[in-house]
Amino acid sequence: MKSIQKILVSWIALDKDFINGQVNEDGPTANLYKHLFKYDCHYLLSQSSEKKGDTKLDFLINYLKRKFSYQVEPCFMNMVSSP
């Protein structure tokens, strides 16, 4: 019998996951990975419509994949902010 996968879905925390343009190793996403990550896959949500539109998401995912051995995937929500 196959086991059910544990999937985490979360938003990138732009104001907490980064300090001075660098990944905040004490930010919520990095801390989740360091201390509480017990999932098979993490979908990290972005408000952008495409990969090239969210460099911080790319930067955070690259950091997480380099530092930890968990599966993390970007998910682009195509949400446009109104004026």
Strand content: 15-25%
Structural class: alpha/beta
Mean pLDDT: 87
Largest sheet: 3 strands, parallel
Shape, please? globular
Number of H/I helices: 2
> C-alpha Rg, in Å?
13 Å
List keywords for this structure.
globular, alpha/beta, 83 residues, 5 strands, 3-stranded parallel sheet, 2 helices
Structure description:
The chain has helices at about 30-35, 55-65; strands spanning about 5-10, 20, 20-25, 40-45, 70-75. It is α/β, with parallel strands linked by helices and about 80 residues long. It has a three-stranded parallel beta sheet, with helices on one face. A two-stranded antiparallel sheet has the order 2-3. The radius of gyration is 13 Å and the shape is globular.
Write the layout of secondary structure elements.
Elements: E1 7-11, E2 18-19, E3 22-23, H1 28-36, E4 41-46, H2 55-67, E5 72-76
Parallel strand pairs: 1-4, 4-5
Antiparallel strand pairs: 2-3
In short:
The chain is α/β, with parallel strands linked by helices and 83 residues long. It is built from 2 helices and 5 strands; from the N terminus they run βββαβαβ. The strands form 2 sheets. The protein has a 3-stranded parallel β-sheet with strand order 1-4-5, covered by helices on one side.
